[in-house]
Amino acid sequence: MGEYRKGGDFLGRHRVIEPSGALPQAALRLDNSLPIYENELLIDVETLNIDSASFRQMKEAVGGDLREVGEKVRRNILEMGKQHNRVTGSGGMLLGRVLDIGPEWPNRFGVKPGDHVCTLVSLTLTPLILEEIVGVRPTEQIDVKGKAILFASGVIAKIPEDINLNVALSLLDVAGAAPQVSRLVHDGMDVLIIGAGKSGILSAAAARAKLGNRGRIFGCATSQTSVNAFMALDILDDCFQADALIAGDFMEKVKQVTNGKMVDLVVNTANVEGTEMASVLACKQGGVVYFFNMATNFQKAALGAEGVGYDVTMIIGNGYAPNHAEFTLDLYRKNRKVKEWFDERFLR
Predict the structure, then answer these.
(1) Quick one: which of 124, 150, 267, 316 could link to 154 by a disulfide (CB 3.0–4.6 Å)?
(2) Tens digit of pLDDT for each residue in 62-82?
(3) CB within 8 A of 322, min separation 6: which ones?
(4) Which tens digit of pLDDT belongs to each residue from 179-189?
(5) Strand residue runs (E) in 74-140
(6) How far is CA 122 from CA 39, 76, 127, 320, in A?
(7) Is the pLDDT of residue 334 over 70?
(8) Is residue 187 domain-shared with residue 230, that is, in the same domain?
(9) 266-296 pLDDT, tens per residue?
(10) What per-residue confidence (pLDDT) applies to 294?
(11) What is the CATH number of the domain that holds 290?
(12) What is the distance between the alpha carbons of residues 244 and 139, in angstroms, rounded to a whole number?
């Protein structure tokens, strides 16, 4: 399409301005200048999907003013060359159209200029050029005009024609959760899902698809409205209202619904820090706690479990799993009530 710079690094290290030697995700500042390198891809950005923990933190910091959330994002990109929340450490992902493909970019995803795509790598490592913020939605999506650069190591998904763009964006934002939960679930398990948002619902749906009736799935949320909506999806055995920020009370609630047995697998999809010990205490000795919550303080989780003498395996949620986009989109297609939940909130 145009001229390309030579010498781009597979991992994007050529875009790091400071500190020297850092990878793009850990960098304090990225070079977001054009033209792209010959092993990069350029995207015409339409929407930024902000990580839930990051959006919540920014929204609370400005008293709920969505325009001010947009201003925070604008300043982040101006100062850092990427969207990286310095409080939560998280970013999000984006939706846009492929604008240009460098001749050395390894196109293992079969995309071409003009295709609608979602990036499946964090905004914390994606060089961004922001031209304008068009609008900020309470669904954690920010409509923009701008450009994004994807490195040779980056992962991208072409949006299928049968799924609405904004629904696809909401699904692919948390695409790693469901397939990873499916890998962790085994027959006879009792599973607890903390949080009734996108990743919580998809995790519960994946667990139910794997378990069938050969295990129990519990859900919890902070409001009765969310509890009712979660139960209405018919993928849980039970759902209860509880505040995971109050670990002792939360443990008692789990004891009550499990008749004192606790659970084999806890999946934490909350979007706030401070739920680490509730997750640990809900788990059986020898069980597994899977933190898909990007606000998790892993030091609190590790030292807290040690302090109460709990032997649990703790897993850090990874936004990537092989074929995770296809897995999550198929889950949405096959579960009518889950599909309706996403369509009601994100279809436009």
Answers:
(1) 150
(2) 999 999 999 999 999 999 999
(3) 179
(4) 999 999 999 99
(5) 92-101, 116-119, 128-136
(6) 19, 14, 10, 10
(7) yes
(8) yes
(9) 999 999 999 999 999 999 999 999 999 888 9
(10) 85
(11) 3.40.50.720
(12) 22
Do 236 and 335 contact (CB within 8 A), yes or no? no
Looking at the fold, whether 211 and 132 belong to one and the same domain comes out as no
**In a domain? residue 2:** no
Q: Is 194 helix (H, G, I), strand (E, B) or coil?
A: strand
Please say whether the beta carbons of 254 and 266 come within 8 A: no
- The residue from 112, 128, 159 where one domain ends is 159
Burial label, 223 (beta-carbon count in 10 A; 0-12, 13-18, 19+): exposed
Q: Are 268 and 185 in the same domain?
A: yes
Determine, yes or no, domain membership for 212: yes
Q: Can you read off the two tokens belonging to residue 186? A: 């085994």
Q: Answer yes or no: do 237 and 155 share one domain.
A: no
Give the total number of structural domains in the chain. Answer: 2
- 253-268 confidence digits (pLDDT tens): 999 999 999 999 999 9
Could you tell me the pLDDT band of residue 1, with boundaries at 50, 70 and 90? Answer: low
Residue 84 forms part of a structural domain: yes
307 Cβ partners below 8 Å, 6+ apart?
none
Distance CA 56, CA 227 (A): 20
Q: What is the pLDDT of residue 47?
A: 97
Residue whose C-alpha is closest to residue 162's, from 326, 345, 341 = 326
Average pLDDT over residues 117-122: 96
Residues 222 and 288 in one domain: yes
- Which domain range does residue 44 map to? 13-159
Q: State which of 98, 124, 159 marks the end of a domain.
A: 159
Residues 335, 294 share a domain: yes
Instruction: Find where tokens 């579960």 sit.
Output: 335
Q: Which residues pair with 291 in a beta bridge?
A: 268, 316
Kindly report, residue by residue over 7-57, the tens digit of the pLDDT: 999 999 999 999 999 999 999 999 999 999 999 999 999 999 999 999 999
Instruction: Indicate if 104 and 251 belong to the same structural domain.
Output: no
One domain for residues 191 and 337: yes
The residue assigned the tokens 């109460």 is 308
- Answer whether 39's CB lies under 8 Å from 10's CB: yes
With contact defined as beta carbons under 8 Å apart, do 21 and 33 qualify?
no
pLDDT of the residue at 279: 98
How far is CA 99 from each of CA 43, 45, 81, 293, 326, rounded to the nearest angstrom?
5, 9, 19, 33, 23
